[in-house]
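ok here's the first one, seq then struct tokens
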Amino acid sequence: MSSVVAGHAVHGLVGWLRRQRRGLLRWLLALGVRPRFLGWRAIRNIAPDAHVADTGKDGNITVIAPEQTVANPLPANITDRAALDPDPGWWGYAMRDVPTRISHAARLVTLRDVRVLAFPDGPKAEFTPAIIDGRDRSISLPQVRFRPGHAEMMRARPPVVEMGSAVWFLERVYDNHSHWLTAHLPKLLLLRDRGLLDRTVMPARRSAAMEASLAILDIDAAAMPQYETGTILKVARLTVPVTDRFDPRLLRPVRAAFAQGAQAPAAARVFISRARASGRKLLNEDTLWPELERRGFERVFMEELDFAAQVRLMQRTAVIAAPHGAGLTNMIFCPEGADIIELADPGYPNPNFYALACAMGHRFWLLAAEATGGGHALHKDLTADMTALGDVLARIDGLRGPA
């Protein structure tokens, strides 16, 4: 082999290794290789309470709402709690936990001399934040923790912005529709009530739905400090709201904040279609639709409605039927007492929409749908049981009267 060819081969190999670096680092970490052997200091995760204890009077924790356990009803078509899946998965709680789900205390935690950094993770470039204190420890918060990509980011020496005092409310994938409505807007309203919005750091990149929601709430995002992904924010005194994503004490004020003026009684029945989505389509939707239409449902494609139109639609909606998906999050805007029918894969027992329905005071119905295809459960298409759906619709007619 000539030296020129060998040189090209080595250059190509080096280029490939650089392109694969993040995946290789994760693979090495999964094998148990210690971070110090990969060229960075080990970052230890600690609870915010430990950081505050170390900083003494300079840090503090204010409890806004204490921990509480709420007695929630079973799904309306399920009579035995044991029928609910007990696996907490990656959510930290299971379907079976929802009837007595604990809402953790809502707190304002003040941290001293920390660095906030976020990098775009994975093929979807998902916003992924971490908070590192002066002792190189990661402050563990909901959806905020240190990952290998943060180490890579720090090694690259990105731009640094310094602030004396700030408020941080952003979690991982803040721009996801469900996360924005259930995890972020409640915190923003909490911060507004406490007069902290002027110091609250906003993401520099915001979706159209985010901008519309902020405008409806009369929050001027442009007047707030901005954070650009890929930079390090050094803050002498950082306040972080730590909240439970499905705490009714935080979610119900979101509905109230979007209710403007007198509203007519909700009577609409809405089927949220995923026929135009990339995954989790309802394969027998066309077979089911005549029965839904006969019972007064209108079929909607949420991606065709702007945010304000989605809110208005939900404010007049009394019954929602939909496959598992972000569109169901819009139940947050329905008047209390709506009927929510979720068609879901029992092999992927995600409790979030059940918990959200309970938090908003809605009646929840859970219908098993058969999943089809390989890969992650979120990408599998579904087939609903027409008889089971018809039975639930008939029961709703019995409770509400025909449409």
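and now the second one, same deal
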Amino acid sequence: MYKEPEILVGLDLGTSKIAVIVAERDSRFQEAQIIGIGFAPSQGIRKGLIINLEQAVRSVRQAVKDAQNMVGFEIAEATVSFSGLDVTSVTSKGMVSLGRTPRQVSIADVERVIEAAQSELSIPTNRLTLHTIPVKYSIDGNSGIDDPLGMTGIRLEMELQSVIVPTTVVQNIINCVESAGVEVNGLVIKSLASALGALTDEETRAGVISLCIGGGTTGLALYTDGRPVKLSVIPIGGDHITNDLAYIMKIPISKAEEIKKMVSLSDEENEEQELDVDVRGRTKTFNIREASEVVTCRLEELFTEYVSHQIAEYSLHMFPAGIVLSGGVAKTPGIESYSSEILNLPVRVAEPLDMYQMPPGRNDCEYTTAAGIIRYMTSKERNPYRFIETPVSHLRSGSALLSQQHGAKNERKSAARGQGMGFRGVIEYLKKSLKELF
């Protein structure tokens, strides 16, 4: 009996643009086929945060309408990626006993060890855990275990990464998208979505760094042994370069944006070039080398002061696959060799992994995050406890979160103190997911 293909929709809420990606998946195949991408210029969003709700809602509606025109049907729900400056990634550890005699690890044991690791955290009441990501397990001291279910031992340990975000940021995101007529069925932090859209499985197993240089922020993800060990957001993006050019060259922002896209980081290409720019009816001539110096100054700050600081606690030998760049700024000619020289690692510029499926003109490194949302959705379905997120139903209203928090305190004070908002929701969601899987 024929069954209609399943529709998957991702919505990337960016500072420069809003992208909506639509994919369909036939019941016979696991991989999703991308059938359309819509986008619209982003208004009302700065550095990943909503600063004007009405403008942001209008931008989301425009992007959704563009996608609907391409695919020919109405979009009702989506998984949303977003950024923001106040995102932290915290690692904790948990351990549970399996008994005095060796036995096989069960689903309940996995639940218990995740709960034990979560209870070690101390999260303020105005924040919540968006993602709970098991990094690695060990049984009886033997580490490097990817999936402990069915394995035998007497002690199960794990290392867990929790991505923590401000509660109000999440609620504003949900309010914005749902005010535009699209129900939010999931949330993913942009740095994780970008990495999933840009990195190959071989790179994540070897060890790699994903850098998505967007308009207002740069998302960073560190991978080792196939799992993300750190996710963060850096407060520098392409808009900072545009503002630098506008200020130094004394030209409007729109003209500075045009010049930014013409700059190359290769000295040979900048040798004797000049630019004629029409500024309010008057022609101004600029040397392209001067514009390039402005761009390199800001990129040098990004790589030397921010990226280097974020990876300082890790040995560079942990990332033999080097750095993968994505986002609009990654399209700058010569950025691979420039960043490789500064960071002392090999660098490549990403294209969406499903590039051959992407619509023409929308298949470059600007759309890796959108493609990554689809990969995030399908990855969660195949392995529900690889990326565990707090259910959206628990995030929509502050009152629901507050009630959830007080309930957790009454049930188990130590756990509530560690997790704060979202703790019980994550555990209950995990139990439900595991039961459905097995």
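notes on #2: Residues 398-423, 434-438 have pLDDT under 50 and may be disordered. Residues 103 and 152 are 5 Å apart (CA to CA).
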